[in-house]
Structure formats: structure tokens, C-alpha cells
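User: Quick sanity check before I run a bigger batch. Here is a single chain. Can you write out its predicted 3D structure?
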Amino acid sequence: MASKATNQENHSMCVRRIYSCAFLFLMLVASPSTSSTTAELNPAILHHRWPADWIACPGSPHREFGVYYFRKDFSLSSKPDHFVIHASGDNRYQLYVNGTRVLEGPARGDLFHWRYETIDIAPYLHAGRNALAAIVWNFAELAPMAQMSNETGLIVQGDTEQESVVNTNGSWKVLASKAVQMIPINRKTIPFYMVVGPGERWNGAEVPWGWQETNFDDSAWQPAEVLVSGGPRGIQDSPSRWMLVPRNIPLMEETPQRLMSVRKSEGVEVPQSFLQGRSPLVIPANTDATVLFDQTFETTAYPELVVSGGKGSVITLTYAEALWKGREKGNRNNIEGKKMLGMEDQFLPDGGRRRLFRPLWWRTYRYLQMSVRTGDSPLTIDDLRGVFTAYPFKVQARFESGDATLQKMWEVGWRTARLCAHSTYMDCPYYERLQYAGDTRIQILISLYMTGDDRLAKNAVELLDDSRVPEGITQSRYPSHLPQMIPPFSLFWIGMLHDLWWYRGDAAFVRRFLPGMRDVLGWFERRMTPSGLLGRLDWWNFVDWTPQFRDGVPPEEGNGQSSILTLQFVAALQDAADLESALGDQSFAERDRELAARIAHAVYERCWDASRELLADTPAHKDFSQHANILGVLTNAIPAADQKRVMQKVLSDTTLTQCSYYFRFYLFRAMKKAGLGDDYLSQLGPWKQMLNLGLTTWAEKPEPARSDCHAWSAHPNFDFLNT
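Assistant: Done. Predicted structure follows.
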């Protein structure tokens, strides 16, 4: 890689032609402070065993499915100015103070780094009786893939002696819920890899309505079972497998969001005033009714259904990114002849007034279908709305273009990036919700350029570092309770370190990860062959979703020899050399730079095809791809004098294996490096095609696409700003 100074001098941009019709403003602001930093905490919380205990429900299984209500009543002589508490749960929890929901967590982590939230609840307290209440759930074998777990539990710890009255112990009360059942994903209707957790079926007759309120009577509830005391990570003889660390990102945004339109209804007429929340919808007794709502854009939200009466009714909510015709979605705006297939929740009303159903976990949808079957009593739907939730990014960048298509791309790209960022970055919000390093590198760059907020980015670097296996490489995605290795994604983790150093300059943060970076490089170096190329690598060596790559893996020979995988290693060595030179050990920098040059030369010697004037995918010269030549340009394995000519062929030769949306991020970087920035706008056809298909977020890959929202495809937002 070129030096930082050289790159800055040559920082021309492929979107400079946009300036004739656009005004561009970008400010990479200083990162806002986290909502609760360790500097604000009582040092005893960070360095000593907690007085508070992890608690659970006596007689209930600790590692099987369950939903539990917890309460603690306490009295205060006066309203306090400050009342700071720390809380966590397993799998997850929601915390209420005098009926107001104030926390949801914990932020994603693993058992060695189990997050807890910190909040000052003084604004919600008053003199006299107060109630702290929590709902805790464990989805057990159906938990999201991203959910790590020890056993069901809740912990609340007061920051000082003043707040210790609320410490979790045997004085808390608990009730095991009989109201909730899990609805597994129906693999017949959703025949795709989907690991986001189950739907939920709630029986309103079994809900202890008002359980979170101050004056609720919990006299019939049991005293909580004490499991073990809490303890921060790093103390001697940790009391449990939960090694507690402070949350390092802010709480998620929650913003009310009205449904926009009704596309179809059967058995009931839906007035516009219902969509606006100004009038109820009444469904007579013994009636079947179905309403298909269209949010008009994809969202991640908590649906909130408010009903009265209707005892004996069954209400099913189904969520989808688009409607289906067979295995095709077609134009996402069209619904005729298509079916609603997706994740489901159910609510069975108990006949009470204004009962609120809100699932424990957020849903992803553009289309939301409500199906109702009433019994002998009419049902009043008082309201159906959403509460948008995502990481609370605040946009600092502005892009204005006279080209309406570019302006629409900017809007759709940022929506995609937002929906794929919650307490971690995630590949997609509907199907997986997993933080993959290959996706995350691109997502970090988008959010840095759009917002200047680097907290989620640093969290991603730390989490992926936490995933490291004894061999030295990081896992492909993390947190994930099922380990998965994609070795090239470990190399992208090094790229993430380089990006954070380059764009944020936080030397102290990046320097922490240099030993781990060296471990990753060592893993690859040990797999070099005498030819100078990488040998066959274990695990899944995904590069891109393109039909010519089986399962996304580029062609290899019997003992590996992939130019693509080898050049990805070269790129990581070049990034590492920059980091070592600026932050680490000069001898490592020189070694990494020399090794990168030697390997790049070997790739060129064995894979350059003089007749086609292109790099082949292997020394056999049977397969040729855009990918190999893109990486050859980016790493300078292809001589600088040839790079423009090679990239012109990459853009024009359709016999080459083509990049999908994801790897076009690197295509655009190589175009810029080769001086072909003026061709950038002509390469946006795939995104224009997605707009023509009615997508409101960018898809995972070309049709037929599984996921309609994949942030690795949102990189035009980065391109528009990376001037």
C-alpha cells in the first residue's frame, strides 16, 4: 500500500463528475462520548466483586426456554438527585421503574465480556413507595445465533451504598410466565438460512397485567433464587461465567413510526384515520379478517398492537421484506398474485381494555399482515403502530444532486446502513443479524463518513478480536454461539484497524490490537507454499457471491494457489506494515513490507497471462475474474504502468467472473487508483436496477435475492463522500 501521505496527495475521487450537479458537505466530527463511561462509575464496580447477586426463578430450568417477571418494592424518604444503577440479564432483559421502561439489554458480547448497562433512574423515582421491575427471557435452543448465554439470570447493582437497596438478592420477587410460547421459524415457508430467534405467541389471559406498575400486588410471587454474586472481568476467582464489563455504546434509538398504507383487506374496512391513530378498527364476533399494511419502506421496529375486548380471538402478525411468487419476489411494490410468507407473532386477547402486545424483540418488515379470527366477542383494534429502533447515528454529511436517481440512492443507502446497525453491525436485519467482518469493514466506513461516530466501529473491532481462536485467526462473525471461520475475513479485520487509524487517528486504541494482527498474519504465513502462493486453507474461504465461485469460494488448484486469496493476504501485510511503521515495531514493518512484495511478485510471475494481459485466478490460467485483477491493482502486484489498461479490461470484458454488489466496493477502489474515476457513474447500473425493482434498501446480491437489506451493498454512500 502507498503511504498515508502519498494517498492523501493523490486523493482524487471517482465522483468528481457529480460536482457539476451536486453540492457535497462532509464533516467527520469528533466522536460523541458514550452514554456511560468507565470514568463515571464507582471504581468498586469495576474492580471488586459486587454485593448484588445474579437471581433466577426457583424451580425453573435455568438453560431452557422461559420468560420471567421480577419485582423489587422499596421506599425513599425523598426524591433523590441521583440514583445510579447497573443492570444485566441473560439472555436479555427489559427494566422498568414505576411502570416506565428505561433499559433494554444487554449489549451484545460473550461470557468473557458480558455487558451491563448503567443508568441514573432518579428522574423516575419519587418519595414513598417505588418499584423496580424487569422481564427476563431465555430463548434457549431457538435463541438468535448472535446470542451468547450462560443461564437465565438478572442482576441489578446500585452504584453506591445509597442505591444498594435495589441490589438483586433474595428480597426480589419473581413469577414464571405462563403466557409466552415460542413460534419456531417455519422452514417450509422460509427455506433460507434464518437465525434471528423465534416468533412469540402471547396468551393475554396468562399475563399479569400491570406487573411493572408501582402498586401492583406481587404477594403471590416467589422470592427470587440467588445464583451467585456478580463480578467484573479481571478479578481474582470470578464468581461466575458472566465476566461483567460496562456497555461501551449508547442505548438504541426508539422513535414512533406509523404504518403508511393498506394494500389489501378482507373481512373489514380500514379507514385512513386508523392508520393515523385517530380511530379504532372494530372486527365483529365470529369473523375472519386480514389486512395487509405497507410501511412503504423497510424498517426495523417493535410492532405495538393495542386491543380491547375480543376474548377468544387470535391475532397473527406476519412480517416480510417483500411478498413472494414461488421463489421470486419481483417488483417489491407489486402484491398481486403473491403470497405473504414470513416470521409470525400471535396474540390471544383476554377481553381486557387497551391491552398492549409488543414482542420482546424487534422485527424487520416493509409489509405487515394482520390476520384476525374472532370468537363470540367483537374485537376492537385500538391501534397498530411501530417503534423504529436502531443504533442512534446522527447524520453529519449532506449530499445534494440534480440527478434524482443519485439522490434516491443516497437515501436508500443510508436506510440500509441504519437498519444493519443495532448493538452491533449486522449483515442483514431479517435473516441473520450477525456481525461479519467482511460486511462490517464497509459498514464502518459508511458510518464514519456519514456520522463521524466511531463507537460502534470500535465495538466491532473489539468483539471480533474477542472471537480469536487458538490458531490465531478471528472468527468470521461475532458474537455467534456457533463458531464460523472465514480466513479472508480475518484479513479484513486488519483492514478495519487500518481504516480506524487512517480516518480517526486513535493511535492508542489501534495499538492495542497489533499483537492480534500479528497472530492473524502468522496464521497465513504458515500456510505459504514454495511457489510463493497460499496453499489450501481450512474453513470457508468466501470471497464473493458470484455464480462462478462455488459457495463464494474462488477457484483453486489441488494445493490451493488462489491468486485472489493470496493477494488478500498481501493487502493485509501492506496495511500491517503501515500500522507497524506508525504505531508498532519498525522491524515488523520492514518484514511485512518485504514479505508482501515477495508474495505479490510470485503471484504476478505465476498468474499473469501475457496473451490476455490479465491476472488469472490460479497458475493454471484456466479461470479469470474481475476479483484477481482488482486485487492486483490495489496491491500493486500488477505494475503501475499497466493498471489503467487492466482496469479498462476488467470493466469491458464480460467473460471475466463478475463482482457482485459486495465486491464492487473494491472494484471502485481499484478504478479510482487506476485513474478511471470518471467511469464511476456508468458502473451504478446494479443499484438503478434495484430501484426499478421497488427496493427501499439494497439487496444482498442480484436476483433472486434472499435478503432485501444488506449493508455491504450500501457503499455508494461512502463513494459519494470519499473525495
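Residues 1-39 have pLDDT under 50 and may be disordered.

User: Great, the batch can go ahead then.
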